[in-house]
Amino acid sequence: MLLPPEYGPENLGENNILAMAAAAVDPSYIGWWSAASWHGFTTQRPMTVFVATKRQVPAKVIEGNDVRFVKVAERKFFGFDTYDVYGRDVAISSPAKTVVDCVDRPDLCGGPSELARIVYAALADIDPEDLLNAAMMLKSKVVMQRLGFLADLVGRQLPSDIRAAMRSAIPNSQRSSFGRPERKDGDIGYVSSWGLFVNARESDLLAEVLAPQSVS
């Protein structure tokens, strides 16, 4: 799994951690923050590699890298493709599936503010139809509520037909939350257009979107 010499002297001795992490459990795919970084939706380089699996697997340290295996329900185990990672075929969630997975589990992509940055970057490139299909296949009303809200928040509102399709899939009685468990003064609060209680300040959610983009 070592990077071959033809990839240059700067890579000698480094390991292809994405390939090794994905190969540790079968079936599996690289997802969440790790996939978002791979697709270029964030300049952050997560210290942990996140891997989606169908069964419970304890976390491992592989060649000095923390690898977290996340068991997902059968209905959520879809939407990944094979990508060439330094000469190795690696299963990684597709761009659209990466976004909906991150919206589903903000804790696996750096938290709400980092998620807002991921959504902002991703919506500049992803076909909204692909995003809608991935969200529908996930069968999560909460994901559609959060995704619609975040698209509005970061200034990349979904096309009217996509937006209408998502809204029609959310029951009028559906109420969900995003952000901290409890509300604090200054939080956005209830967003009626998406039936979402947002326990976070707008300035905090947009902090990473507005921040200078640099590799950390």
Please describe what this structure looks like.
The chain has 216 residues and is an alpha/beta fold. The chain has 9 helices and 9 strands. The strands form 3 sheets. The chain has a 4-stranded mixed β-sheet. A 3-stranded mixed β-sheet has the order 7-9-8. Helix 3 packs across helix 5. It is globular.
Write the layout of secondary structure elements.
Elements: H1 17-23, E1 28-30, H2 32-38, E2 48-53, E3 60-62, E4 65-71, E5 80-85, E6 88-93, H3 95-104, H4 112-122, H5 128-138, H6 141-153, H7 160-168, E7 176-179, E8 189-191, E9 196-199, H8 202-205, H9 207-210
Parallel strand pairs: 2-4, 7-9
Antiparallel strand pairs: 1-2, 3-4, 5-6, 8-9
Helix pairs in contact: 2-3, 3-4, 3-5
Defining traits:
35% helix; alpha/beta; disordered N terminus; 216 residues
- Note the run of SSEs as H and E: HEHEEEEEHHHHHEEEHH
Strand content: 15-25%
> Overall 3D geometry?
globular
Sheet with the most strands? 4 strands, mixed
Low-confidence sequence ranges: 1-13
Mean pLDDT: 91
Summing up helix and strand content along with how strands pair, one would put the structural category as alpha/beta
Helix content: 25-40%
The main sheet orders its strands as 1-2-4-3
What count of helical segments does DSSP give?
A: 9
Strand element count = 9
Report the C-alpha radius of gyration, rounded.
18 Å
Terminal residue distance: 25 Å
In short:
With 216 residues, the protein is α/β, with parallel strands linked by helices. Helices cover 35% and strands 19% of the residues.
